[in-house]
Amino acid sequence: MKTRLACFAFSVSVSAAAVAVDPLPGVLTVAGYSGPDRTPRLTAGAKKEGELMIYSSLTPPDQLRLAEDFKKKYGVTLKFWRGSQTNILQRVLTETHGGRFEFDAIETNSPQIEAIAREKLLQKMNSPFVKEVLLPQTVPAHGEWTPDRLNLLVYAYNTDAIKRADLPTSWQELLDPKWKRRVGMESTNVEWFAALVEAMGEKQGLELFRKLGDNGVAVRTGHTHSTGRVIAGEIPVFFGVFSHDVDRMKVKNAPIDWFVLPPAVVLPSAVAVSRRAAHPHAAALFYDYMLTEGQKFYTEVYRVPANKNYDTHVRKLVEQKQPIAVVDAREAIDDYDKWQSLYRKLIVERSTH
Asked: Do the domains spanning 2-149+268-310 and 151-266+321-350 agree at the CATH topology level?
């Protein structure tokens, strides 16, 4: 029996009988650290190790700033291998099945990290900071990864082309002829599509997207690229880009802003430690850092930290009791083929321009 992860690893199939890698003794030791001396012990060990390897989908500028901050605080060098979440999963699976364990920690989208957890490659960390996560439902029961940032999928619009007062306030309004061929969607947003349809009720949700496809949707690939198409005036309204991409351009006075239609969709990203980490103290310290000081770093680069103590877009939605649909990492894997097929059929393959 096999679980297909075509969406995440270019048709890589992961065996249900996972590799089940045994943790190194050093990893087990740091995983069990608790009490007030946890951070000093991790810091001392990490300084001796001197470095660690992170597989991350953060942008290169964000990685550089993160590495500088971590080095300044702890005297430890972060080495990055940067790729998309799909490429990270593919690399980990390829290395593991070749008997190689190159990464100490991973930071990328939760469905891909959950796929790695299913291969029994990640070690649960006894971190006291897990309880600070804003959305408890985003924390997996097995505890082998923890959300560290929340990707809020928003709807960007060109402020030169559309006044905020004229934006749609419901999904049904988008079926009005005035929005015909004026709306865009990102080609890989399968999880976003699935979360919305399930929240609306599958029958009603699929019918809505079918009608949206009839009305004309421009499809583009890449969230940052799609944001740029709005700024350029090519597509007046674009559904399913990241709030941080828009916020970064807003402060540069680009003609762009964003809104959401309920439910707001949140795709968590997460941090995890390898069972075979060659630098276990540094990996565990990085894990804790991403759930504490790293949260402040996220606010500085306009991302949304997962910690409940920060004033963020998502926390405001929670406090206002607005509907939120959180992408479930396990369902995103198990049901991906179904939702990818439907999204392609209703939207992607019918792209208007």
From this structure: yes
**Strand, coil or helix: what is 203?**
helix
Question: Is the model's pTM score more than 0.85?
Answer: yes
Cis peptide before 263 (omega within 30 of 0): yes
From CA 293, how far away is CA 281, in angstroms rounded?
17
pLDDT (tens, 9 = 90+) of the chain, 353 residues, equals: 334 444 444 334 444 445 678 999 999 999 999 999 999 999 999 999 999 999 999 999 999 999 999 999 999 999 999 999 999 999 999 999 999 999 999 999 999 999 999 999 999 999 999 999 999 999 999 999 999 999 999 999 999 999 999 999 999 999 999 999 999 999 999 999 999 999 999 999 999 999 999 999 999 999 999 999 999 999 999 999 999 999 999 999 999 999 999 999 999 999 999 999 999 999 999 999 999 999 999 999 999 999 999 999 999 999 999 999 999 999 999 999 999 999 999 999 999 88
CA 286 to chain centre: 18
In words, the CATH class of domain 2-149+268-310 is alpha beta
Report the CATH number of the 151-266+321-350 domain.
Answer: 3.40.190.10
Domain boundaries, the chain: 2-149+268-310, 151-266+321-350
Distances (CA, A) of 3 to 13, 90, 196: 6, 14, 24
CB 143 within 8 A of CB 137: no
| Residue 303 and residue 149 in contact, taking contact as beta carbons nearer than 8 Å | yes
Shortest CA distance to 265 belongs to which of 296, 302, 304? 304
DSSP-derived secondary structure for 73-108:
HHS-EEEEEE--HHHHHHHHHHHHHTT----SEEEE
- Cβ–Cβ under 8 Å, residues 191 and 328: no
